[in-house]
């Protein structure tokens, strides 16, 4: 842990209480002057830390910036997701950064956030709007050691984790739209982009890219997105603290990844089905040039959607754009 992370962890552990300079200096093996300098740096970043000569330091509030050390102190031990966190002010796409780390052999669990992306993308090369400071734009590297068809399970797990974290942090009740959208009041508030590198029978690594519209105002969505997209702030009517939400998502994702590794994917799939707006509906799914119609029955073992087609047989669908038909 870095010095900043240790200071923030100690202040957070003290809750409303204070931690004395002497205690911090002993714990961290630094002079009181060095602690004072780090506290001032944290204050410069927007952390409201009260310093009283008698009591010591007290954390009043944290700014709405993503700070790797701060995020690390909010996660449990041991964990895989969020073992290491990097934050960029701006990058092309966090999936690209993680792809590079994956090729360099970095171990699984690393998470890369960006305050803004210049080339944020969705599936099939679509654009993903990622304005600075307004959302959570991040990617997670996993090395699940599964066969390629099972990688879809990770998208399913990401959706359930996102839904739970958004619900606990905002009180909203998001729904999942197959395969990769999180909706609030029928509008998209988050999307998942799963990219993988695989050999014929083994996945080398999976990159889970997640975009959550947190504090965008309606006017910040371009007109063509306004009808279909929304943000947590628009839906709750108040700004949402991004660091707390980011940590909640990583904790939930770590929990779901643990469930999958323990062979409990069916529990994740049941939870997914319970919150999915697609299952039980008559749908049309566009897969490239092909359009398949039928009833979305359930989620298969590997995470694919099982569709009973117009001709009565079951088709396993792993990707596509779905529209619900009346
Ligand atoms: C997705 O694609 O929903 C996956 C989005 C993943 C974004 C994350 S951000 C971090 C990581 N790095 C990346 O570069 N990407 C990932 P798809 O289902 O294809 O939806 C894309 C469509 O959603 C676009 O064509 C727009 O219609 C719409 N869209 C674009 N930006 C949006 C936004 N911020 N919020 C809601 N909808 C958006």
Distance between the termini: 54 Å
Q: Which stretches of 5+ consecutive residues score pLDDT under 50? A: none
> How many domains comprise the coordinates?
3
**Broad shape:** elongated
Helix and strand pattern: HHHEEHEHEEHEEEEHHHHEEEEE
Specify the CATH architecture of the largest domain: 2-Layer Sandwich
Q: What's the average pLDDT?
A: 95
Give me the side-by-side strand order of the main sheet.
3-4-5-9-8-7-6
Question: Helices, strands, pairings?
Answer:
Elements: H1 3-13, H2 21-28, H3 32-44, E1 48-52, E2 56-61, H4 68-73, E3 85-91, H5 94-103, E4 111-117, E5 135-142, H6 152-170, E6 175-177, E7 181-184, E8 187-199, E9 202-213, H7 223-226, H8 232-236, H9 242-261, H10 265-274, E10 282-287, E11 290-299, E12 305-309, E13 314-317, E14 321-325
Parallel strand pairs: 3-4
Antiparallel strand pairs: 1-2, 4-5, 5-9, 6-7, 7-8, 8-9, 10-11, 10-14, 11-12, 12-13
The structure holds biotinyl-5-AMP (BT5).
What does it look like?
The radius of gyration is 21 Å and the shape is elongated. It folds into three domains: 3-61, Orthogonal Bundle (Arc Repressor Mutant, subunit A), CATH 1.10.10.10; 68-274, BirA Bifunctional Protein, domain 2 (2-Layer Sandwich), CATH 3.30.930.10; 282-324, Roll (SH3 type barrels). The model has no long low-confidence stretch (mean pLDDT 95). It has 326 residues and is of the alpha+beta class. It contains ten helices and 14 strands. It binds biotinyl-5-AMP. The site of biotinyl-5-AMP has 28 residues, from helix 5, strand 5, strand 8 and strand 9.
């Amino acid at each position: 842990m870095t010095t900043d992370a240790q200071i923030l962890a100690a202040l957070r552990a003290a809750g409303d209480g204070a931690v004395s300079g002497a205690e911090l200096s002993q714990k961290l093996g630094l002079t009181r002057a060095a602690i004072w300098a780090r506290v001032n740096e944290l204050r410069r970043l927007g952390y409201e830390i009260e310093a009283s000569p008698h009591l010591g330091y007290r954390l009043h509030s944290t700014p709405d910036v993503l700070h790797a050390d701060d995020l690390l102190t909010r996660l449990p031990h041991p964990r895989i997701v969020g073992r290491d966190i990097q934050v960029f002010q701006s990058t092309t796409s966090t999936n690209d950064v993680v792809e590079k780390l994956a090729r360099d052999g970095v171990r699984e669990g690393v998470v890369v956030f960006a305050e803004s992306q210049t080339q944020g993308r969705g599936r099939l090369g679509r654009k993903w709007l990622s304005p600075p400071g307004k959302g959570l734009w991040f990617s997670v590297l996993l090395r699940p050691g599964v066969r390629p068809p099972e990688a879809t399970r990770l998208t399913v797990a990401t959706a359930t984790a996102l839904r739970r974290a958004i619900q606990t942090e905002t009180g909203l009740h998001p729904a999942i739209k197959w395969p990769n959208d999180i909706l609030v009041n029928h509008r998209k508030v988050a999307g998942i982009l799963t990219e993988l590198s695989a050999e014929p029978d083994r996945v080398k690594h999976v990159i889970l890219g997640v975009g959550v519209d947190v504090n965008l105002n309606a006017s910040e969505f371009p007109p063509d997105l306004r009808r279909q997209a929304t943000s947590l702030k628009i839906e709750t009517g108040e700004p949402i603290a991004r660091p707390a939400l980011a940590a909640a998502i990583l904790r939930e994702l770590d929990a779901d990844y643990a469930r999958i590794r323990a062979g409990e994917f069916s529990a994740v799939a049941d939870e997914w089905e319970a919150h999915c707006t697609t299952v039980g509906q008559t749908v049309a799914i566009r897969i490239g040039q092909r359009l398949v119609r039928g009833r979305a029955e359930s989620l298969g073992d590997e995470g694919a959607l099982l569709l009973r087609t117009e001709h009565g047989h079951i088709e396993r669908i792993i990707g596509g754009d779905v529209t619900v038909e009346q």
